[in-house]
Design a protein that fits this description.
The chain is of the alpha/beta class and 157 residues long. Strands 1, 2, 3, 4, 5 and 6 form a 6-stranded parallel sheet that branches. Strand 4, helix 3 and strand 5 form a beta-alpha-beta unit. The chain is globular and about 35 Å long. The structure holds flavin mononucleotide. The site of flavin mononucleotide has 19 residues, from helix 1 and strand 4.
Length: 157
């Protein structure tokens, strides 16, 4: 049976809240999904999952250091993430604060690893974005994204 994981880094809880909504939605849509802070995850844990969803606060327009460090550790099994589903989300302090560049940085790394990334023609195109604490719009986007990730993963795996 296919499995998913949502991995997040969060200092003040905004990204964590998004992560929990996405993971709940993935579970509800029929993909058994774990939700873990980045410090509880080792890079080779990724091998156990068919969908890997990464959330980071926007730090200077990029993913936060602990998330980047975890990515860098996946080099030891480079090629083995090929074909897994990937997705990303971010919280920033400002509109135009670099939310989408952060998401794109994560998706670029996923593409290099051979992962399958789906956009969204109606919802947040690259992945859910929040300005600080998720409001109702963001929560809906997180639910929608979780459902879409689960549907795609169950189709492919
Ligand atoms: C080191 C650092 C760098 C940041 N850089 C940005 C930034 O470039 N743009 C922005 O809008 N917010 C920036 N922020 C604000 C965070 O992205 C924002 O507060 C976010 O909601 C925090 O998420 P969290 O509650 O999951 O930790 C920065 C915060 C820190 C601590």
């Amino acid at each position: 049976m296919a499995k998913g994981i949502v991995i997040y880094y969060s200092r003040s809880g905004h990204t964590k809240e998004m992560a929990e909504i996405i993971a709940k939605s993935m579970n509800e849509a029929g993909l058994s999904t774990d939700c873990l802070s980045v410090d509880k995850v080792k890079a080779d844990d990724w091998l156990k999952y068919d969908a890997i969803v990464i959330g980071s606060p926007t730090y200077y327009g990029h993913m936060a250091g602990p998330i980047k460090q975890l990515f860098d550790e996946t080099v030891f099994f480079h090629g083995k993430l090929d074909g897994k589903v990937g997705a990303a989300f971010s919280s920033a302090a400002n509109i135009g604060g670099g939310n989408e560049t952060t998401i794109m940085g994560i998706l670029e790394a996923m593409l290099i690893a051979g992962m399958v990334v789906q956009g969204d023609p109606q919802g947040d195109h690259y992945g859910p974005v929040s300005v600080n604490k998720p409001d109702d719009r963001v929560k809906r986007q997180c639910q929608r994204r979780g459902r879409r990730i689960a549907e795609l993963t169950n189709k492919l795996h």
